[in-house]
Design a protein that fits this description.
The protein is α/β, with parallel strands linked by helices and about 400 residues long. It contains 13 helices and 15 strands. The strands form four sheets. The protein has an eight-stranded mixed beta sheet with strand order 2-9-8-7-6-3-4-5. A three-stranded antiparallel beta sheet has the order 11-15-14. The chain is globular, with a radius of gyration of 21 Å. It starts with about 20 loop residues before the first helix and ends with a helix.
Amino acid sequence: MSPRILDQSSKLKGVLYEIRGAALEEADRLEADGHRILKLNTGNPAVFGFEAPYQIVRDMIEAVPHAHGYSDSRGIMSARRAVVSRYEEVPDFPKFDPDDVYLGNGVSELITMTMQALLDSGDEVLIPAPDYPLWTAMTSLAGGTPVHYRCDSEGDWQPDLDDIRAKITPATKAIVVINPNNPTGAVYSREVLEGIVEIAREHSLLLLSDEIYDRILFDDAVHIPLATLAPDLLCLTFNGLSKTYRVAGYRSGWLVITGPKSHAAGFLEGIQLLASTRLCPNVPAQHAVQAALSGVQSIDALIAPTGRLHEQRDAAFDALTAIPGVQCRKPRGALYAFPRLDPEVYEIHDDAKFVYDFLVAEHVLLVQGTGFNWPTPDHFRIVTLPEARVLTEAIERLGNFLASYRQ
């Protein structure tokens, strides 16, 4: 008797995560064959020589002997109190207490829990284009329908408020804001954020604010937490340690719930239920939170004009804009650039093939723009974590490749 065919669950149809897609599989195969691959597809600080702050490592090591049992399903109290203290220092951030904080195995888990608790089949969520694709994937996996609102590449990648308004329907339940933005590096203006809040207020939308890069800012950029503009609205703020504190592998994130809750009792009970079914977040990593959020913030030196992250951002921007037919808005935050390939110079009809062909030719891995739900094959994302010299060389190789590339 032949075994029953086990196909992929229908829930996964249309769920994509190209940051770790087919091109990465080919990169891994090339590495296994002995080639050296420069992976500029994920914002993973550790592989580019960024060390975890010693205070965080020390506290985790000291906690391990007594961190082997389950914790409260929300997370350990000391870490949740540290999150409360962090936002008490932010002017106008709505008051909340430790019971309004959920710790997670990275922000990714908290996004998944939120969408599973919120969405029924057919519910719509407004998500930026380009987006961090996990938001789109988890909306689809939860049975919802992602609806992408456009960010304006000619206007420093700020969300298009008119496009947001045009895409609201009776089925719209929430709006996602990613600020500072991945993949564009944009930092949103107060005017735009106030506009989004007003739209949410008018249509009674849940605000979901991804602020994982809130302390990675360059030049005169200022991050405005969305919750500070919406004390009268239910707002979920997502953040964590992976980027600011360079400990992506610890999988240590948090979710903060602010604003009125009486109308959302069922939804919030759903989050608590899902938090309970996972039992608890990784307990040793929770002990990193208090150490990270108190004391000297080591990110400040890295983003200063002479800091490594700042210099790498500048090197990537300068090298990209030196390539004929490549345009790029200078990133003001986060760890990425999202350049455009002028279609009149480069006739690229399949950006996934472009990324694959560049990988095979030059052993550098990027991510195609359509992998971030950008509608046309004329962009790509590059991570700005390697040293400036390495970035400059990789982008020069890209320019040489593009000079003769045809599809």
